[in-house]
Specification:
Number of helices: 15
CATH architecture of the domain at 4-231: 2-Layer Sandwich
Shape: globular
Radius of gyration: 21 Å
CATH superfamily of the domain at 4-231: ATPase, nucleotide binding domain
Number of strands: 22
CATH class of the domain at 4-231: Alpha Beta
Largest sheet: 7 strands, mixed
Strand content: 15-25%
CATH topology of the domain at 4-231: Nucleotidyltransferase, domain 5
Structural class: alpha/beta
Length: 474
Amino acid sequence: MSDHVLAIDQGTSATKAALVDAAGAIVAQASAPIALATPRPGWVEQDAREIWASVRAAVAACLDGRDPRRVAAVGLSNQRETLVLWDRRTGEPRGPALSWQDQRTAADADRLAGDADEIRALSGLPLDPMFSALKARWLLEAHGSHDVCLGTVDSWLLSRFGGAHVVEAGNASRTQLLDVRARDWSPRLLELFGVPRAALPQIVASTGPFPAVRGLAPLPDGTPVCAVMGDSHAALFAHAGWHRGRVKATYGTGSSIMAVADAPAWEPGPLCLTIGWEDERGIAYALEGNIRSTGGTLAWLGRLFGLDAATVASRAAASSDGVHLVPAFGGLAAPWWDDDAVGLVSGLTFATGLPQLARAALESIAFQVEDVVAAIESATGRVGTLLADGGPTANAVLMQLQADTSGRTVARSDTAELSALGAAHLAGRAAGLWSDDDLESLDRPFASFAPAEDPASRAARLRAWRDAVARARR
């Protein structure tokens, strides 16, 4: 009996696989790590072959000891703006996969500054090296444009199965080459960024059609792929984010804060307009703010002290004693979108040590998330509860700090693999395993953190943070 969904979550630092049963519960899971290379300052690369190998390893480990014939459908969620160039004939990558974190194209962005308003109006995204368009130009110039395919990670993985060169609509909307309202590659954006349309994939809905599985042992070849979503989009879906007024923050290496919204109401500002997902009901648009470094800040601090990120967080003091850490390692993204901002640590004294720096790192996460939530609130109305997910949310100190910093209740999902679960939910519905009512009634357990800080103290901390951000942007 085929009554399970296999969810694959291809992330920045690892690929995770989760087997979801007919009740919507994760019954098996596995993970395979992936390396990041930083050959020069600002350059962040991955090996597309290693990404594919990690998917195969995670799937094999997840299904070890399970009957793969019970998998009715596969759902895929993926890191988004990372871009791959590969040979159309051989299927082999040409050059590295340029990570969403990569900043090598900052000078190219500067050269297009005069067109930034038009680019933003068409794509819904600010002109920024994080998005795929500038990476596409760099890859084509560095590794050739003849007989090639360009694609985000979902497109690359689907190409391993064979069949058409396709990309899911939500991922396509993160490339900055899509006219987000027309849902098609924009001739004007292709002209500005120097990208040939022939290299780009066909845009399909989040429910496909996609090539069926091939080469993902022990899954039988031909197992259908029934849903593909960007990781942040999938997490919003798992939160039942199709309901208006729900705002979620996914914490990871960076962070994404997102809520569904009406496209006609969007005007260029601190938030992006993106396609959340597309299914038989049409397109669900979303407002989003992206933060480049949240969990990555703890990992960076850990490297300085020879510790892992979790240990750094556990060493945090109850107060930073006036220390602020602005993690503008490659500039600042939402709501500032300032590529010239510099990383900054301020307020140091001879008494400052790892505990104060670790606290400042945790606070930088909470402050950045609140900056974006406040921007969403100004666009959509009062946000009383923030839905939280992602690995760093396991830290209860961070979650309480977020509640205190935001002055909002934080509802942390008890399910760590929410991106995988969202992809599974959409795939299961598309495969006929679940109805809309089934998804509505799924148990979504969470832990609640209520703000406990005095409002005056909260306001003073926010003012001090924004002073530190202003110094980083000078």
